Amino acid sequence: MSSLKIVTLLLAAIISISSGAARAADYKLNPFTLTYDNAITENVQGKVNIYPVTYKLNGIDISANVYIPANYDPIHKYPAVVVAHPNGGVKEQVAGLYAQRLAEQGYITIAADAAYQGASGGEPRNVDKPANRIEDVHGMADFITQYTGVDANHLALLGICGGGGYSLKAAQTDKRFKAVATLSMFNSGRVRRNGYMDSQISTIRKRLQQASDARAQEAAGGEVLYSGDADMTDEQIAKLPFDLYRQGYEYYWKTHAHPNSTFKYTTSSLLDLMSFDATDHIDLINQPLLMIAGIKADSLYMTQDAFKKAVNAKDKELYLINGATHIETYWKPQYVEQAMGKLTEFFGKELKYGAIDEDKV
Asked: 20 to 30 A from 310, CA-CA: which of 144, 167, 238, 280?
């Protein structure tokens, strides 16, 4: 081993020991800029590997990571899972964690940055329109079902936070997905319209006017305006009224920060967001449905509402993780293990993974 590599490894170990988990997930210490603990640092034959890919979606370059199982053999067929990331998140964070963990269970998985966000293309930056996010899910399915070794008839979908709401919408019409799961689902339209925990209903008209004015300014060639881009001190973060926001700032700005991840979105996006609801026409979901959430999550009301309305989902199950908040399901080992145990059971059953696995032996 070279002296440079030894120094690098020692430095990483010192940082990890002295700073704890907050620095163990530092993107700067990972060659793929992955932010989660126990992330892949190099591709090794016979183990789970990661392959950065780029593909076109409606003329936009989409940046994605594909994870393949250990001992991958392209002549065999594998089930696959599309993983949709949270609002403001990128593929290197929680979406990558669950994509890697599912690959460890034998699935080929894909996590992609949304169009206009992360490392994907699209201008102006950080447009956050539901139609785009839903199309991102369809686009991941397009790409991964053509990937060598994927059995297109055994495709599942996992949506996390905002990606969960958009996954519910995508699955209403996209029947390539044979099983659908959400983790800490966030109904972006409801929150942008009513406020978190329906706390801003009285200001809906005012915010719609602001969005309309922002759209008019863009159309006239003026500056693109953004919402959600607050630079807050630790003291200000501690005073936020909701666990999701307090812990979200900690996760996205500190412990699992990534330079491509941001809370901001174009204010004009609210014209589309505020008229959207992930549960509209949710009765069209007839696939098996698993919804996972922390029992202490203040976002739980959105999962419960969607679950109740998904009246035609087959074999549907609401699985609550004891003790977990919304953000803690992203990274705390004991909660990730519980979520993964349930996802492995659910996808294995609904995709009949055992039968596929026998064919590979």
From this structure: 144
